[in-house]
């Protein structure tokens, strides 16, 4: 039995957004378990699910988790990035059935997996309704889980199954294109590792995943002293796990077909990706949705939280919470008390207080406090900083140009960076940012990668957020764009004209941070390759027919390139909150609530 009370298995990670709830369900039930339950879909395909439910004769609400990840591993307790269905030993004693289902073609489920396609949405609709029809279910179904489990929640909600009452899709992506590509830059390392890992695990069954050595592993991982070590298991641990698993052999179909589709056959947004994009469908969602992520998940799910927030603007009850660093360790069991207050309200009719206060709560790093807002982004002021020819990042432009080369064959630096002077006062940056860049390159394509850092007086740097853009997909939908949020169709590649200056708008993922007095803000390329980032400011694009060089000259122009930090005007979530101040410079434009950077 898991929870926060004495004698319970202690859950890792933050459990609320700093709030106190009331009338929450208590842990009073034993657990019944039914493995490998058959779920027949409308076309006759049979999926497999594990059902954990309270030891009671009374019907109870159900929480459904569905993904291509092995259901048999969800109680393993390992810090692996596929254990994300939630802690059943938390939910079941509190009176919820926890149903963990495998999607088509994975771990004993029939059919062939299609990777977030239209068939999967129909299957999820059926899963919800089949769950609600079980004699042990009272007809109220919620959905739970992070990452792909979160994606499945929103996919199901777009189908409007009658018995789906609420969802909690934390760390969600609403577009498969954006999960695999960063504004046209293929996230090849992660996409390959992830798809191969799913392929390897999908073919494994109970003999490996439930019996034999796995039983011993479960007992070892359940030891409190071992479990506590996973409290800080983050992205690096996830990637190492994927690397280890992906080395095992897997069958070719459909996995190599999907990998080929992602890596080579569909290099731009096209109908294949459109089928795997929930954004046009989110307006149909009519159930309460609680979305969120953590500020450090810049490269994968954080952008999806904002895409979901925008797409759900017509949904009556939507809330969003954004956690600080370390908010979502593996295995996933953080934010369970927050989710309990949510489901107790919507599935059980309890007055938990979950709807009290503004709908947006976010952790302001640097100030180390919770903030609230009625909107996202919060009302703010623009602050424009020019990339100076002298390497300065300043409200006042220093005219000129800087050159660099992507290798050591030229007498030029291989990387450039820009920094502010030490800040004279605290500066709160909350919201969306963009880099406007005027540059010339000797090649016909280029990949722009920009990293924003907080540099302390001792020189140590904290990564804040990052942005990407493939030069050939630089086209901007100006009518749909807002300050700080350029909309990039990414459908029609156009070669970059060699030697000519070109204007680019590079979106940086939204974030929130207080840059303290005496700190510097630095814009730089990433220094080392990560699971999603090449190691340089601009990289060649080999999958196009063009053969670019990486020698490039960023040129400040009269419409100065700038990133847009914003000073938050959102209210504090608790007493003692302070406000940052914008350094001196040109008076910024005032933005409306929907377009504030």
Overall description:
The protein has 13 helices and 28 strands. The chain is α+β, with helices and mostly antiparallel strands. It has 2 domains: 2-356, 3-Layer(aba) Sandwich (Rossmann fold); 380-570, Sandwich (Jelly Rolls), CATH 2.60.120. A hairpin with a 2-residue loop joins strand 9 and strand 10. Helix 2 (118-132) packs across helix 3. The protein is globular. The chain starts with a strand and ends in a 25-residue tail after the last strand. Residues 527-552 and 554-597 have low confidence and may be disordered.
Brief summary:
This protein has 597 residues and is an alpha+beta fold. The chain contains 13 helices and 28 strands.
Task: Describe the structure using short key phrases.
single chain; 597 residues; alpha+beta; Rossmann fold; Jelly Rolls; six-stranded mixed sheet; five-stranded mixed sheet; 13 helices; 28 strands; 20% helix; globular; disordered C terminus
């Amino acid at each position: 039995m898991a929870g926060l009370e004495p004698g319970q298995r202690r859950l890792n990670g933050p459990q609320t957004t700093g709030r106190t709830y009331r009338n929450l369900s208590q842990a009073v039930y034993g657990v019944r378990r039914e493995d490998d339950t058959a779920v027949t879909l409308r076309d006759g395909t049979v999926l497999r699910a594990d059902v954990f439910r309270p030891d009671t004769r009374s019907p109870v609400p159900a929480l459904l988790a569905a993904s291509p990840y092995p259901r048999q591993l969800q109680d393993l307790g390992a810090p692996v990035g596929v254990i994300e269905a939630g802690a059943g030993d938390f939910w079941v004693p509190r009176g919820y059935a926890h149903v963990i289902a495998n999607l088509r073609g994975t771990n004993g489920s029939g059919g062939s997996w299609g990777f977030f396609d239209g068939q999967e949405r129909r299957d999820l609709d059926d899963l919800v309704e089949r769950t609600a029809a079980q004699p042990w279910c009272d007809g109220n179904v919620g959905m739970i889980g992070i990452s792909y489990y979160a994606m499945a929640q929103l996919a199901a909600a777009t189908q409007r199954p009658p018995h789906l009452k609420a969802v909690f899709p934390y760390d969600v992506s609403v577009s498969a294109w954006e999960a695999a590509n960063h504004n046209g830059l293929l996230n090849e390392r992660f996409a390959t590792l992830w798809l191969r890992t799913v392929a390897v695990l999908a073919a494994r069954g109970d003999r490996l995943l439930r019996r034999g050595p796995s039983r011993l592993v479960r007992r070892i991982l359940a030891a409190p002293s071992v479990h506590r070590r996973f409290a800080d298991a983050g992205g690096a641990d996830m990637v190492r796990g994927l690397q280890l698993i992906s080395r095992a052999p897997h069958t070719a179909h459909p996995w190599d077909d999907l990998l080929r589709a992602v890596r080579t056959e569909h290099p731009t947004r096209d109908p294949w990706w459109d089928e795997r994009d929930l954004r046009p469908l989110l307006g149909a969602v009519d159930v309460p949705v609680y979305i969120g992520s953590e500020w450090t998940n810049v490269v994968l799910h954080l952008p999806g939280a904002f895409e979901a927030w925008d797409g759900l603007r017509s949904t009556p009850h939507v809330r969003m919470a954004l956690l600080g660093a370390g908010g979502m360790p593996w295995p996933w069991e953080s934010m369970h008390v927050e989710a309990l207050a949510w489901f107790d309200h919507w599935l059980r009719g309890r007055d938990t207080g979950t709807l009290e206060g503004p709908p947006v709560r976010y952790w302001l790093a640097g100030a180390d406090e919770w903030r609230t807002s009625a909107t996202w982004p919060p009302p703010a002021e623009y602050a424009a900083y020019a990339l100076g020819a002298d390497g300065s990042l300043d409200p006042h432009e220093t005219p000129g140009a800087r050159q660099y080369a992507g290798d050591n064959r030229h007498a030029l630096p291989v990387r450039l960076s820009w920094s502010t002077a030490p800040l004279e006062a605290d500066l709160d940056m909350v919201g969306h940012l963009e880099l406007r860049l005027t540059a010339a390159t000797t090649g016909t394509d280029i990949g722009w990668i920009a990293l924003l850092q907080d540099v302390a007086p001792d020189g140590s740097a904290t990564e804040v957020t990052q942005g990407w853009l493939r030069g050939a997909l630089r086209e901007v939908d100006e009518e749909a764009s807002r300050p700080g949020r350029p909309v990039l169709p990414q459908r029609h590649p156009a070669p970059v004209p060699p030697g000519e200056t070109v204007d680019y708008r590079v979106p940086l993922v939204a974030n929130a941070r207080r840059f303290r007095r005496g700190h510097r803000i630095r814009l730089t390329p990433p220094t080392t390759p990560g699971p999603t980032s090449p190691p340089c400011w601009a990289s060649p694009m080999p999958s196009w027919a063009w053969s670019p060089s990486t020698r490039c000259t960023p040129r400040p122009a009269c419409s100065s390139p700038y990133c847009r930090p914003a000073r938050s005007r959102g209210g504090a979530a608790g007493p003692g909150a302070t406000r940052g101040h914008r350094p001196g410079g040109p008076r910024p434009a005032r933005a409306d609530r929907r377009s504030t950077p």
